[in-house]
Amino acid sequence: MTDQLSPRRRTGVPRAEDKLHDVAVVGGGPVGLLMALLLTRRGLDVAVLEQRTSRSIHSRAIGIHPPALAVLDDAGVGPALLAAGVRIRRGTARSRGREVASLSFEAVPGRHPYVLAVPQVITEQLLEEQLEALRPGALQRGVHVHGADDDGATVTLSCRVGAGPGSGTRPGAGPERAADRDAEHPAGPDTSTVRARLVVAADGAYSALRRQRGVAVRTRTYPDAYLMGDFADTTPDGSTAVLFLEAGGIVESFPLPGGTRRWVARMPGVVSHPTAAGLASLIARRTGIGPEPESCTMLSAFSVSSRMPRRLVAGRLALIGDAAHQISPIGGQGMNLGWLDAAALAPIMAAALRGEPTAAALRQFEADRHRAAATATWQAHLNMALGRPLPPAMLAARNHVFGALTHIPGAHDAVANRFTMH
């Protein structure tokens, strides 16, 4: 990342004769969009290539932690997100109807002493609107990137135009299967190329570019599975996040805008055919609170695994987000971790495009982001362990220790800082 570049602008779908971009960002999810925003605000010509033809309506990641909120402020979307979200200033843990522990986020460092809960579809919309305002046409949907040719000065991306849900994958196909088909059938009738000086792969945990570049990945599968759903909020908990530490497994409860609440229940295995009524019944059995099944607006069953690439920079390609570190979603750190990747990488890329030497900065970037991912993985592992089923006697003993710890002022602040990614 040392070549001198001059920013250029483009719009429209990819074509082989298009001008050279400063940076191509592969993946138009929340991490890729923020990366593009940060680079665009530095005066760079950025193209974002996204396989999906439209934003997913499903709300997946919801929690935005204080360090990421500061980055989003710098990108110009902080105020809009704050207006759209719920500020979680307190979390509590309960067991068998009694409070075990309580955490206040009021004392966390920085200008945002809370976790902001925003449905991911809204977060993506606000990021996309901000990018469109700064560089119209930068986001190109329905473009699947399946290969990259790095000649040492530029990168040529091989694309299929018109790929995405309903074209590049069939309903119900898992990401591994879709990736395998891409490798077997890398070209189609609607193919094109995009050229850029540098490339950012923000194309998810099964990153096609990461695999195409031969980056080795350490994978770990966990024995944990969860069932998640969004229901109308019938609790008195308001903006408080609640963990129900029960013998049958944890149930997590988080406020969302619009009088909605997210429920996440630890399961003995992945539920193949989840129903709102089934999840509501399980929540009621464990917590005594019964969400209304007919109010459910989202339902998802998932297992947990982690993927850690051995390197994050390969020639003129850099990995961020889930492409750089897939961790358990329990704890809500993954999207935030990707945003912090983008914040760390953007100034390095800008310096490289000015012709400045960046080798040492890239080595530090890799070391720092590997360290941050390891810390987040450890925290997610601890969160999952906290939620596993326990015999009643062991559960009571564990809860007593957990509660006592959060009543020690210094320990309370340390735990609160850890849960908010400080």
From TrEMBL:
Basic and acidic residues bias (residue ranges): 177-187
Keyword Oxidoreductase annotated: yes
Domain FAD-binding residue range list: 22-377
Domain of life: Bacteria
Region of interest: Disordered: 161-191
A Pfam family of this chain: FAD_binding_3
PANTHER family, sorted: 3-(3-HYDROXY-PHENYL)PROPIONATE/3-HYDROXYCINNAMIC ACID HYDROXYLASE (PTHR43476), FAD-BINDING MONOOXYGENASE (PTHR43476:SF3)
Protein known as: FAD-dependent monooxygenase
